[in-house]
């Protein structure tokens, strides 16, 4: 199964970063962010796209009640703010650093257009990535609409197993070391933090998993 909640398999940084191109290398810089720093806010001008050189970035928005809704957690090699090259003029989401040493490669829209105009293969890969991203977000929406909270959590954990799970050689359990808060997981699967906590404890009682602050262990009898 391809990743729904992450797009880690596509390292666009290796392909798109302007410092790879001689014409742009001299004037290109990286931007550094600490944990909880905002890269952009909702309603900011949408004139750049961004590549993650290192670190983690949270993409989200605030609903009418002022509650934060997390759309995605992105990592090294991933692209965000890409709607700027599709004609968006103002941001409809925020981007926030989750690490103390996040490094971002900003690319102006005009620079991106130049790169795409001069390299057909490059342009094709960019649009292919954007299409894949929208397709996966559509799939996520279907899960939110038609699956119950426990099923959504199990599918989320299954994705984490594929992305970052490691087998314990002694027990056969799948160990997931992660950086999510419970609030972020709850938002990603479309439920509340209290409900998430209830489901986690139910799955623990069912011998499906065990969990700690930054580790989830999928037990061998179900992994």
Please give a structural write-up.
The protein is an alpha+beta fold and 223 residues long. Strand 9 (165-167) and strand 10 form a beta hairpin. It has helices at 13-16, 22-25, 109-118, 120-146, 149-164, 182-188, 193-205, and strands at 31-33, 38-40, 48-54, 57-62, 68-74, 79-80, 94-97, 102-108, 165-167, 174-177, 209-211, 215-218. Helix content is 36%, strand content 24%. The chain is globular, with a radius of gyration of 19 Å. The longest helix has 27 residues, at 120-146. Mean pLDDT is 82; it is low at 1-10.
Structure in a nutshell:
This protein is of the alpha+beta class and 223 residues long. The protein has helices at residues 13-16, 22-25, 109-118, 120-146, 149-164, 182-188, 193-205; strands at 31-33, 38-40, 48-54, 57-62, 68-74, 79-80, 94-97, 102-108, 165-167, 174-177, 209-211, 215-218.
- Span of the ends, CA to CA: 15 Å
Query: What characteristic shape results from the CA principal axes?
Result: globular
Q: What is the averaged pLDDT score? A: 82
Strand order of the largest sheet: 1-8-3-6
Report the uncertain regions: 1-10
Order of helices and strands: HHEEEEEEEEHHHEEHHEE
**What proportion strand?**
15-25%
How many strands appear in the DSSP assignment? 12
Give the radius of gyration. 19 Å
Q: Share of helix among residues?
A: 25-40%
Largest sheet composition: 4 strands, antiparallel
Structure class: alpha+beta
Note the total helix count.
7
């Amino acid at each position: 199964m391809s990743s729904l909640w992450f797009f880690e398999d596509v390292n666009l940084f290796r392909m798109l970063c302007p410092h790879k191109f001689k014409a742009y290398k001299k004037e290109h810089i990286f931007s550094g962010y600490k944990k909880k720093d905002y890269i952009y806010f909702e309603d900011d001008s949408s004139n750049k796209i961004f590549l993650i050189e290192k670190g983690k970035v949270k993409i989200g928005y605030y609903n009418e009640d002022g509650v934060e809704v997390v759309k995605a957690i992105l990592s090294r090699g991933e692209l965000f703010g890409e709607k700027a090259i599709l004609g968006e003029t103002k941001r409809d989401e925020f981007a926030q650093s989750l690490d103390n040493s996040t490094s971002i490669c900003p690319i102006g829209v005009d620079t991106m257009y130049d790169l795409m105009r001069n390299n057909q293969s490059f342009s094709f890969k960019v649009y292919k990535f954007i299409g894949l991203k929208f397709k996966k977000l559509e799939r996520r929406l279907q899960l939110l609409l038609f699956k119950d909270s426990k099923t959504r959590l199990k599918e989320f954990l299954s994705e984490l197993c594929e992305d970052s799970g490691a087998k314990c050689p002694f027990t056969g359990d799948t160990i997931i070391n992660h950086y999510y808060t419970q609030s972020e997981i709850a938002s990603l699967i479309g439920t509340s933090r209290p409900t998430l906590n209830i489901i986690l404890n139910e799955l623990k009682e069912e011998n499906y998993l065990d969990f700690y602050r930054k580790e989830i262990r999928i037990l061998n009898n179900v992994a």
